[in-house]
Amino acid sequence: MPHGETAWNVDTRIQGHLDIPLSDTGRQQAALLGRALADEPIAAIYASDLSRAWETAAFVGRALDVAVTQETGLRERCFGEFEGKTFAEIEALLPEQAQRWRTRDPLFAPAGGESLLALRERVVAVAERLAADHPGELIAMVGHGGVMDVLYRAATRVDIQAPRTWALGNAAINRLLWTPEGFTLVGWADTLHLDDTALDDNRFANPAGPSPASHA
Question: Is 3 a catalytic residue?
Answer without folding.
Answer: yes
